[in-house]
Amino acid sequence: MTAITTNDIRDHQARLEQIVADLLAEAERRGADAAEAAAGAGVGLETTVRLGAVETLEHTRSNGLGITVYRGRHKGSASTSDLGPEAVRDAVAAACAIASHTQEDPCAGLAAPRYLATRIPDLDLFHPWALRVEDAIDLAVACEEAACTADERIVNSEGASVTTHTGVHVYGNSHGFIGGYPTSRHGISCAVLGQEGKSVQRDYWWDSARCADDLASAEAIGRRAGERTVARLGARQIATRKAPVLFSAQVAAGLMRHLMHAITGAGIYRRESFLLDHLERKIFPDFVHIREEPLLPRGLGSAPFDEDGVATAPKDLVADGVLRTYLLDAYSACRLGMETTGNAGGVHNPRIGMGEMDRDALLREMDTGLFVTELMGHGINPVTGDYSRGAVGFWVEDGEVRFPVEEVTIAGNLKRMFQGLVAIGNDCDFPGSTRTGSWLIDEMTIAGE
What we know:
The protein has helices spanning 6-29, 85-99, 133-148, 218-231, 249-262, 265-269, 330-336, 359-366, 414-419; strands spanning 34-50, 53-71, 74-80, 154-173, 178-196, 199-209, 241-247, 290-292, 315-319, 322-323, 350-352, 369-380, 386-397, 400-413, 421-424, 439-447. By secondary structure, the protein is α+β, with helices and mostly antiparallel strands. It folds into two domains: 6-231, PmbA/TldD fold (2-Layer Sandwich), CATH 3.30.2290; 235-449, no CATH class. A six-stranded antiparallel β-sheet has the order 3-2-1-4-5-6. It has a five-stranded mixed beta barrel with strand order 7-12-13-14-16. A four-stranded antiparallel β-sheet has the order 10-9-8-11, with no helix packed on it. Helix 1 (6-29) crosses helix 2 and helix 3 packs parallel to helix 4 (218-231). The mean pLDDT is 96.
């Protein structure tokens, strides 16, 4: 079976909810003052085709359960992939034993009942794909073929993949909350290599969606992978300089993720963030507006409640360039003397207000500089915001792309980069839960020849 179908998803969810209820009762029987548990089950299919032949074919079926118990302010956790009654009891016993040895933490405990979700809206996250193995293989073959025939300079392939996964998630705690919801996620991807003379380049493209009907066609994904690869042929270095940098929408999403990491509660209370003490301070120009949209129908990051069971809700993260909130779970909120923001487990569907310029208009606005389409390495210091990454892209002069660029490093500081944001494009053209157009930064150091 490649999907949990609509007909039996309720049975799966009801079974997990009963397991969680039994687990919480067992924790109480063993003397825990409070407990919480999360359980999940899922099935999936993944196939990869390379050069027209099936390279991998994998069926997956997973179960998992995690239990945390509290004895006073002492915490113990355990997990198991066996959902049988005896394994569940053993997991509870292990968690209770661990709690008897851990150090007391004044912030250890559950989210207060007033924050918990009182209803679970249907966010349209469950769309099983009844995909036969033969059809998955055919889609992967079609995707790779489209990539390889996009241009005669495509000479090799790293393969095309098709994936589908469906599952259900349940969370409960001893405040009486037990809730769950089913999800699905499907994807198609492809990566190929091109050659022109001595220049050999690789690039890729992909799509991902809750519903298979929302995916781009396999052929369109393959063609784009091929076109992106060919565009990079003939890449060369440029001389070291300072210049404006345009981050493509796909790459700019990474800058958004750096922002989210910097305002996450754990980094704030540990004093390990370059945005420490920046709440209600301007960190972007006035035109920047960033929201979290956790209740977006079919959103890849949508969730009706967070990992603490706290109800999620849309909210401004940045408004008029000002940082309006941190991203807090119950624990970090306690450490900071604040209230949870419903972000246990992370941020849900962050999106930035996009401007009126498309990519061509942004290139003209930049005039001369580097258009970055891929980054490499992890040269980010989360405490200082210092930023240094290997980059691939295109050199732009007079608002037009002149030639592809490789083997350069771009460097700056994230705080300074955020303040130097000149424009945000309307060219959001990639999948994912983070939604943004391209970002034009006024100046960065580009290290090359």
